[in-house]
Amino acid sequence: MAGIFQRASKLRTALRCLSLRCSLSSTAGTRLSPADPYGPFLSCLSSVPSVVSARGLHAGADGPEPSPAAAPERRSFSRVTPEDLAFFRKVLPGRTITDPDLLESSNVDWLRSVRGSSEVLLRPQTTEEVSQILSYCNSRNLAINTQGGNTGLVSGSVPVYDEIILSTALMNNVLSFDSISGILTCQAGCVLENLSLYLEDRDYIMPLDLGSKGSCHIGGNVATNAGGLRLLRYGSLHGTVLGVEVVLADGRVLDCLTTLRKDNTGYDLKHLFIGSEGTLGVITAVSVLCPRKPKSVNVVFLGCETFEQLLQTFQLCRGMLGEILSAFEFLDSECMRLLNTHLKISNPISDCPFYVVIETSGSDATHDGEKLHNFLEEAMTSSFIADGTVATEDSKIKALWSLRERVTEALTHEGYTYKYDVSLPVDRIYQMVTDMREHLGDRAKSVVGYGHVGDGNLHLNITSPAKDAALLAAIEPFVYEWTAGCQGSISAEHGLGLKKRNYIYYSKPSQAVALMGNIKAMLDPKGILNPYKTLPDNLQ
Amino acid sequence: MAGIFQRASKLRTALRCLSLRCSLSSTAGTRLSPADPYGPFLSCLSSVPSVVSARGLHAGADGPEPSPAAAPERRSFSRVTPEDLAFFRKVLPGRTITDPDLLESSNVDWLRSVRGSSEVLLRPQTTEEVSQILSYCNSRNLAINTQGGNTGLVSGSVPVYDEIILSTALMNNVLSFDSISGILTCQAGCVLENLSLYLEDRDYIMPLDLGSKGSCHIGGNVATNAGGLRLLRYGSLHGTVLGVEVVLADGRVLDCLTTLRKDNTGYDLKHLFIGSEGTLGVITAVSVLCPRKPKSVNVVFLGCETFEQLLQTFQLCRGMLGEILSAFEFLDSECMRLLNTHLKISNPISDCPFYVVIETSGSDATHDGEKLHNFLEEAMTSSFIADGTVATEDSKIKALWSLRERVTEALTHEGYTYKYDVSLPVDRIYQMVTDMREHLGDRAKSVVGYGHVGDGNLHLNITSPAKDAALLAAIEPFVYEWTAGCQGSISAEHGLGLKKRNYIYYSKPSQAVALMGNIKAMLDPKGILNPYKTLPDNLQ
């Protein structure tokens, strides 16, 4: 006991601070920056992806490759004619873009890993305009790539060949907000951060928060079933999205834009479109159930000697923090080394093999502080944690979060990075990192693990001085087979897009994939919506 | 101020008790009985529905009518032959039931309102057996009615004609439970209450609780997207069900029985089956994300002078109770009159036009008590509540809940009852009751409203001395048009089943219903699964 407290001097001090703070509420209402691994990049993104940010990322080291490199041959869609352009200009005067310079940023994905060759960007403002465009394109057999903030990580949001880019950027109006129920209805092109700001003024928050919030669109979030930081607390978009309005491939408008928490009248069609990556319809509006803004937020940064102790900490934390727990994230010592080396971020506690970021969000600062204090005392008494520090000020809260958020940025300085985003049973999360390290031996420069423990979501990153075909061959399919071996998901939150579509069978049985194909054929018989994405090439 | 406290003497006393209790935790771990309006009946149900409980309910006054009375003509399914029975007996030795006495309870719905004429009841134990049965029935064009606990309220769980009844009753094994993640995987026929008891031993709870928990099956809950008491806190089954295993109409097994919180690999097919009422496939197993068991539960019963004040109380409560609020239910003074008159239950506070039951569930009894105390003081100071009482003991908690739970039972003594279950924008909930009262004038004996304010879910009940065609004509379609007029749902949590299938257009646009028909045709081209249910007769 005494030994623990001697070792964990910072934590002892922090506990005293927390005890003191329990009688205050100075940080009530504090809002945190997101903890998405891609946070620091995406939130800096304006319209053109940063070259620096893409450097060294998987497939992006030498600039974006043409998308077809990763796709099957161009399907027999029509090509855009002057008559087509005349039609688009009539429907969207001044919002039919053909200038190659203006199209550049929409043709390249955020990671700068692939490049399409679209020559037309359409910017509708209304559902009716989207309907007219799709009806026309369907009749003309013209392929469409719907694009929100273009912040996706699997090349799902850019054209592969010459698909027409349909941007939701000008569909950015809040349609209604009910301050009693907390239900927001808005167009698909609203930027997530703008919605968050809109709601904060009304004492609510969005149920999701992502590093890309400054750029991503809510329609894109819903279309890709975005996860992010708040999933542990508020659940997935399948639970918080109450309704969607969708334009189908043939231009029909499907109005499922209900604002009801309960509605058991027939099949709940909206779920088909949540996570379908724009392949089944174009989401034009959504309604979302929003939680009340927490009055109190706390963050602690802890060190654990083993991953087993980290899991014990998680269990204890769920029991003792209960309803106020809003994040439980981890990073390993390799991540800390990269933060130290490349970003000069120092470790605020003593060196440990594993680190944890815990966030609480609640309605009473005193109660939250007491719960956190009791949990930390118990965790120390039980020897689950070796050291730790508690954030009691806004700046320190942000500093602690940055340890988790900036790992991806640190990785970009390490060389070429092979990135994986997998879901695993919580108790197997780190075994994958250990096994991969052993499997690769000296072939990899480093193998690092971090992610959302609370959601069973590991971000596995493997670095190399440069692109290395032999290394890739050693990683894949090993990583997918390992994931499949424990019934995990080979894409936890990033989706399949162009890059991972053919790996779907590692996580879904063929019966399920075949049924997905049937649904695609039913809703988009000509296959004009976001072709070459999500579904595998060998689908029949 | 002083006036309020003088009037609310019971509440003042209660607040003192609560303050005292804040230093204790005597009721930690208290579990509450459910607040579903049908609670007292369904939880008494063993296998045969109680005649008493059904007396006076809509369409049940004179005993169950043949189901076809409400259905279109029998479709051209095959009839069961001796060869079919021989096949079933080979697959299910000793579990192919043809004794009419044993079939009786499975042919009649719980409300005793309709009666099918099935002559075969099949009781499989495994998914493989279900697969063999469906494959055979599909090839033979034999219709199937899948039945869980047969506790539904829209006659969705009983045959209409001679459909074969496929019972999940013997598929009642827990398959796995992960004590770190709280993820339960079990067969579809597990009784909800048994799962709750299993989990309580492991410090978890099911994310749903229903009055029918003693009889209903988890597979039926998922197939009907059951709502219930905990929805306000833990959300709908679309959020908490992580995976399902489904046998399709042709016998193929669709394995979506994932136990992952995050999985973005293709379309999330499980949602098609949640709430599809057995018309798209037979759910054979589910995996569910279970919340930790709350350490502290409190209940208060309050009176409000106006519905506007009740809504203000709800708003205040959401802000001040925040993350510990687990139920916000209401009943009107007519409900209280029925409780007094028929069940001799006395009002524990002074007479008010509206009453509220608020439940909190949290991880710290002291904190929860303090939050509740502060909320009640503020609500009184703001004159939102006129009187109230706080439950500090288990017996009193149950007594307060019974005021909400036993309204349905009280209604059965009032004569013939026309029952409606609608979702509305929260601020319109009671306007429907007021408008209906005005609309019906002296034609109705009483018009009462109660339900789940937190979910925007009203249970509207209209009583009459006896069945009254003129009264029914005055109620319908008025009630559906009123609901549609504010974009509500004509079935919030009960589903459509046989009884409400043709009213679907009041809540869903024709495009959506047509798409539902396409999905049905894709998954069950012969229409053998639960025919005459959910989808309207005029669907093509």
TrEMBL record, chains A, B:
One of its GO terms (molecular function) is FAD binding. InterPro entries: FAD-bd_oxidored_4_C, FAD-bd_PCMH, FAD-bd_PCMH-like_sf, FAD-bd_PCMH_sub1, FAD-bd_PCMH_sub2, FAD-linked_Oxase-like_C, FAD-oxidored/transferase_4, Oxid_FAD_bind_N. GO terms for biological process: malate metabolic process. Residues 56-71 have a biased composition (Low complexity). It comes from the Eukaryota. Keywords: FAD, Flavoprotein, Metal-binding, Mitochondrion, Oxidoreductase, Transit peptide, Zinc. Coiled coil: none annotated. The keyword Lipoprotein does not apply. It is found in: Mitochondrion. It comes from Scophthalmus maximus. Belongs to the FAD-binding oxidoreductase/transferase type 4 family. Transmembrane segments: none annotated. This is D-2-hydroxyglutarate dehydrogenase, mitochondrial. Residues 113-293 form the FAD-binding PCMH-type domain.
